[in-house]
Amino acid sequence: MQTILEILLVNTKSGNAKKSGLPYSISEAHCVLRDETGKAGAVGVLTVPKGLEAAAVPGIYTASFAMEAPTYGEMQGKVIAVLKGLVPVPASAFRGGLPHTLAAAGVKS
Predict the structure, then answer these.
(1) What is the mean pLDDT of residues 73-101?
(2) What is the pLDDT of residue 19?
(3) CB 34 within 8 A of CB 62
(4) What's the alpha-carbon Rg for the chain, to the nearest Å?
(5) How far apart are CA 22 and CA 30, in angstroms?
(6) Range 71-79, long-range pairs (CB < 8 A, 24+ positions)
(7) Is the overall model pTM greater than 0.90, yes or no?
(8) Which pLDDT score is estimated for 43?
(9) Rounded distance, CA 31 to CA 44, Å?
(10) What's the DSSP call for residue 72?
């Protein structure tokens, strides 16, 4: 599953787990989901998995997701979409700093 995703800001939460006392760090990206014309569809926060933190910087991407069902935590047993990859959208998809037509630049949603 792929979608057009604009990352606006990435925050990292860190601390010690309540149960185990072990340290943790979670990166969260504040995002806009866009359609193939660049129109905003939804705004929300996306957890950035380990290994993708360096790639998740402000910009517009074709984002790929996989469906998973976590076996722990507050989402245990629920089917969720998990970010698996980010490919920057080419600069040719922009006119005047805003998405013009992502489909014309070869970006598939």
Answers:
(1) 78
(2) 85
(3) no
(4) 16
(5) 26
(6) none
(7) no
(8) 95
(9) 5
(10) S
Read out DSSP for 5-36? EEEEEEEEEEEE-TTT--EEEEEEEEEEEE-T
What would the CATH number be for the domain defined by 2-105? 2.40.50.140
Q: What's the first-to-final CA gap in the chain, in angstroms?
A: 9
Band (101; pLDDT cuts 50, 70, 90)? low
Residue 3 pLDDT exceeds 90: no
SS3 92: helix
18 contacts: CB under 8 Å, gap ≥ 6: none
Residue in the structure block whose two tokens are 């979409």: 81
Question: How far apart are alpha carbons 93 and 2 in whole angstroms?
Answer: 17
Report the distance separating Cα 87 and Cα 76, nearest Å: 29
For residue 40, the model assigns a pLDDT of 87
Mean pLDDT of 60-72: 91
State pLDDT tens for residues 8-46. 999 999 999 888 999 999 999 999 998 877 788 899 999
How is the chain split into domains, by residue range?
2-105
